[in-house]
Amino acid sequence: MKSAVVLALAASSSSALAGAVKPPQQLNKRALAHSDPFYPSPWMDPNADGWQAAYAKAKEFVSQMTLMEKVNLTTGVGWMGEQCVGQVGAIPRLGLRSLCMQDSPVGVRLTDYNSVFPSGQTAAATWDTGIIYQRGLAMGQEHKGKGVNVMLGPVAGPLGRSPEGGRNWEGFSPDPVLTGIAIAETIKGIQDAGVVACAKHYIGNEQEHFRQVGEAKGYGFTIAESVSSNIDDKTMHELYLWPFADAVRAGVGSVMCSYQQTNNSYSCQNSKLLNDLLKNELGFQGFVMSDWQAQHTGVASALAGLDMTMPGDTEFNSAKSFWGTNLTLAVVNGTVPEWRIDDMAMRIMASLFKVGQTVEQPPINFDSWTLDTYGNIHMAAGQGYQQINWHVDVRANHGSLIRDIAAKGTVLLKNNGALPLNKPKFLVVVGEDAGPNLQGPNACSDRSCDNGTLGMAWGSGSANFPYLVTPDSALQAQAIQDGSRYESILTNYAASQTKALVSQANVTAVVFVNADSGEGYINVDGNEGDRKNLTLWKNGDDLIKNVSSWCTNTIVVIHSTGPVLVTDWYNSPNVTAILWAGVPGQESGNSITDILYGKVNPSGKTPFTWGATRESYGTDILYTPNNGAGAPQDDFSEGVFIDYRYFDKKNTPLIYEFGYGLSYTTFEYSNIKVQKSNAGTYKPTTGTTAAAPSFGNFSTNLADYLFPKDQFSWVWQYIYPYVNTTDAKAASQDPHYGQTADQFLPPHATDGSAQPLLGSAGKSSPGGNRQLYDVMYTITADIKNTGSVTGNEVPQLYLSLGGPDDPKVVLRDFDCIRIDPGQTSTFRAQLTRRDLSNWDPVAQDWVISSYPKTVYVGRSSRKLELNATLT
Ligand SMILES: *[C@@H]1O[C@H](CO)[C@@H](O)[C@H](O)[C@H]1NC(C)=O
Ligand SMILES: *[C@@H]1O[C@H](CO)[C@@H](O)[C@H](O)[C@H]1NC(C)=O
Ligand SMILES: *[C@@H]1O[C@H](CO)[C@@H](O)[C@H](O)[C@H]1NC(C)=O
Ligand SMILES: *[C@@H]1O[C@H](CO)[C@@H](O)[C@H](O)[C@H]1NC(C)=O
Ligand SMILES: *[C@@H]1O[C@H](CO)[C@@H](O)[C@H](O)[C@H]1NC(C)=O
Ligand SMILES: *[C@@H]1O[C@H](CO)[C@@H](O)[C@H](O)[C@H]1NC(C)=O
Ligand SMILES: *[C@@H]1O[C@H](CO)[C@@H](O)[C@H](O)[C@H]1NC(C)=O
Ligand SMILES: *[C@@H]1O[C@H](CO)[C@@H](O)[C@H](O)[C@H]1NC(C)=O
Ligand SMILES: *[C@@H]1O[C@H](CO)[C@@H](O)[C@H](O)[C@H]1NC(C)=O
Ligand SMILES: *[C@@H]1O[C@H](CO)[C@@H](O)[C@H](O)[C@H]1NC(C)=O
C-alpha cells in the first residue's frame, strides 16, 4: 500500500516530500514548511463535559459491534451509492440504518419543500446571537425532517483571509471572535434539533484555487499536490483555530477536514492538525470526517485521526476505497490498532446519542440525485428501483424567520435622509439583481449562474429555492399598496430607457447590483469559485454611475458574497443611500422592503472591511502556482493581520470599517465601567489520560470476513468492509500490500498506553483548559437611544493587547440591544483569560503578556467612543 505509507511519512515530516517535490523556484530555495508528527491519536474521554451520557450509550452499542460493522460505520458506500450526498454502511444486525450526511449550511441541499436561509455571512451581520441560534435550530429541524443525521455545516474555514475567497459567504466573518460566537450558536441550534452539526472545513481552507489537483487541471494547471496553506503556530491559535475551539466547546459532533494541505501535509492525514490541535489540545470528542475525496491514504489517515471517510471511494465511483476492505485488513494485520477503530466507532455513535438520536432512526425520505418520486436507490449502480422521494414539506413557518434574519443582516452603509421611504410618489427599481432568473430560481444547478437577483451563491453550500421573492415583486406590491407609481427595468443594459425613466420628476430610484462567488468545481464567468476581482458584476458600476448622473435620489442595494469596490461612486451626492443586503435567501424582496420602508430599523453591521482598492487588503488569492509542478505554497505571512487588523496596522484609509452600520435612530455611548473578577492564577493541566480502551474483540482469520454471497448481492461500485479472498494481498488489490519498505509506521502511532495531558488542554473540558474561559473582567457601558424611533444597537468591545506585534485592537465581545427612544440600556461584556492572552509557541500555552491592556467600547472598529485601562 505504497501511497499510504509514503504519505504517512508526509503527514509527519517533510523528508518524504524532499524526493518527490522539486525545489520551488520562486521561494528562494528555502525548505518547505512542514508539520511535526503527533501520535498516538487521542481516544475519547468518558468524563468529558457534555459527553458522559453519550459515551455510556456508545460504549454499550459499540461493545456489541463486530469489526466489519465498525468498518461499515466509518466508511462511506461510495459516491451516489445511496440517497444522501454521503452515507456509510448500515449495521442491520443491530438495527442501525445507514447514516445520512447532507449539505448544506443554508438549508437541505438537493431536495424539495425545504427553505433557503440567509448565508452565514448575512447571519453574522446581524450580530444577534439569539437570531443566529434560531437560524441554526430551524435549519436543524429541516434536516431532521428529511431524515438527515449529520448536517454539513456551519463553516469557519474559510474564515475569510482574502475578500475574493469563493466560499467566504458560507462562513461568517474574517474576525475569529464574531465567527466563534456565531458558529457556537449555530451548532447549539442545529444539535438542539437532534441533528449532528459538522464544523468545516478544518483548517486553512482559505481559497478555492488548487484545493484539488483534478480541479486545477480543469482550469489549466498541472500540479502534483494540492495547495499548502503554510500557517505559523501563533497565527493558527490566535486566528484560524479560535472559532474551531468555540465549536468544540459548544459540543459539535463532527468536524470535516479540508481538501488542501497545511504545511505540506493533507488536512485529513495531518497528525499535528487532527491528533494534536483538535483532539489533544481542544479535546474534541466527536468524529472527523473527510471532505469529499479529501482522503489520500488509508492507514496514515486512520493513525493521524480521521474517523470517517466520505464519500468512501478513493475517487468518485472508482469502486475502490482506502478504507472499507483495506481498513478491515489493516486492523486484522495489526497496522491499525483495535483501539483506534473502536475509537472511531465510539466517536461516531456518541455524537448521534449526544444530540438525542437513537439506534432506531426515522427513514431518509428524499433522494439527492433526482426529484422524481420513483428511481434507483443506488443511483451510481442503476439498481434498486423503488420510491425514493416522499416530497416531505419541512419548512414549517421558517419563512418569517428568514425574512427577519435577512432584514436584520442588512447593513445601512450610507443614508442622506433618503430612507426610510414613506409612500414615495414614484418608485423606480433598476437592475437585473432586482428581478427573477427568467429560467426559474433553480434553473442553474447548485446555483451555478448569476442570473436575476442573488438570493444564494454557488456550490455545495446551496439548496433549492421553494420560491424566491424578488425585490421587484415585493417593492411593487408595497408601492401599489401605498398608491405610489411604480416601474422597474430588470436589465443592466437598457441605458436609454433607464435614462428616460429615472430623469422624470419625483423619482426615487433603487438600483440593485451584485457580485457572486462559490465553490471551486464551478466556474461562472471566469470565476473559479474565488472571485477574480472585487468589482460589481454585469456592469454594475456603470449602472450606478449612470442612474446617479440622471437622478438626484439614487439608492443602491448590493447583494454580494463579500466586499465590493464602491470607491468610484459612494460619495456622489446623488447616491443618497447604500445598503449591503448580503446573500439573503428565499425572502429577499420582503426583507429589503422591510428595511427600505423602516418596518425593520436597520441594525446590521458589516462583518468585514470595505477597502478602497483590492490591494489595500494586503492579502489575496494565489491564482497561479508558484512551486513548479509541486504543491503551490500559500504562505500566510501576514500572520494575524487580515481584514481590519491589517488596515489598522497600515493605517490605511478605507470606505466602511469592520463593525460599521447605520440606523434610522441615533445612539449615544457613555459611562464605561470595568469590574475585575477574581479568577485566580492559571494552572496548566497536568496528569495523564487513561490507557486506550477497546470494546469487543475480533477474529484474525480472514475467512470470517469473506463477502456473504448467499445473503445479498454486491451492488456495483459499492464500498463494503468484506474481503473477496483470504489472500490478504489479493483482497487489498494493492500491489505493495505488506511490503517491508512500506511498513513505515510513525513512532508511537499504535501506542495505546496512558498519555500525558497538554497544559493548554482541558481535563475533560472540550475547547481547552477550563481556566481559559474564566471571566477576568466585566465591562459595562450605557447606550442611549437619542433619536425618535426604536432600534437595535450593536455595541462592540475591543481590546488592545498592547504588544508591539499585536493588532491595534481586536474584537472580543458584542451584544445586540433593543432600545426605545429616550431610553438607556446597559451593555454588558466579558473578557475571559483567553481573550486577554497571546499564544506562546515556546510555552505551547496561552499567556497574558505584561503589556498594558486597554478596552474600548464603540459602534465599530474605528468608532471607539469609550475606553478604560485594565489593571
Ligand atoms: C507549520 O509550520 C510553522 C512554522 O514552522 C509552525 O509554527 C506550525 O506549528 C506548523 N503548523 C502545523 C499545523 O504543522
Ligand atoms: C455494511 O453495510 C452494507 C450497506 O449498508 C450492508 O448491506 C451490510 O449488511 C453491512 N455489513 C455489515 C457486516 O453490517
Ligand atoms: C486499497 O487501497 C489501495 C490504495 O492504497 C487501492 O489501490 C486499492 O484498490 C484498495 N483496495 C480496495 C479493495 O478498495
Ligand atoms: C495491512 O493492511 C493495510 C491495508 O490493506 C496494508 O496497507 C498494509 O501494507 C498491511 N500491512 C501488513 C503488515 O500486512
Ligand atoms: C444566464 O446567465 C448566463 C451567463 O451566466 C447567460 O449565458 C444566460 O443567457 C443567462 N440566461 C438568462 C435566461 O438570462
Ligand atoms: C414632483 O415634482 C414636481 C416637479 O419637479 C415638484 O413640483 C413636486 O414638488 C414634486 N412632488 C413631490 C412629492 O416630490
Ligand atoms: C469582474 O468580474 C465580473 C464577474 O466575472 C465581471 O462581470 C466584471 O466585468 C469584472 N470587472 C472587471 C473590472 O473586469
Ligand atoms: C445629480 O443629478 C443631477 C440631476 O440629474 C445632475 O444634474 C447632476 O450632474 C448629478 N450629479 C452627479 C454628481 O452625478
Ligand atoms: C468482490 O466480489 C464482488 C462480487 O461478488 C465484485 O462485484 C467486487 O468487485 C469484488 N470486489 C473486489 C474489491 O474485488
Ligand atoms: C480614551 O478616552 C479619552 C476620553 O474620551 C480620550 O481622551 C482618549 O484619547 C482615549 N484614549 C484612547 C487611547 O483612545
UniProtKB/TrEMBL annotation:
Family: Belongs to the glycosyl hydrolase 3 family.
Entry-linked SMART domains: Fn3_like
Taxonomic lineage: Eukaryota, Fungi, Dikarya, Ascomycota, Pezizomycotina
The name this protein goes by in its record: Beta-glucosidase cel3A
InterPro entries linked to this entry: Cellulose_deg_GH3, Fn3-like, GH, Glyco_hydro_3_C, Glyco_hydro_3_C_sf, Glyco_hydro_3_N, Glyco_hydro_3_N_sf, Ig-like_fold
EC number: 3.2.1.21
Class of the enzyme per the UniProt entry, highest EC level: hydrolase
GO BP: any one term: glucan catabolic process
GO molecular function, one term: beta-glucosidase activity
Signal peptide positions (record): 1-18
Species of the source: Diplogelasinospora grovesii
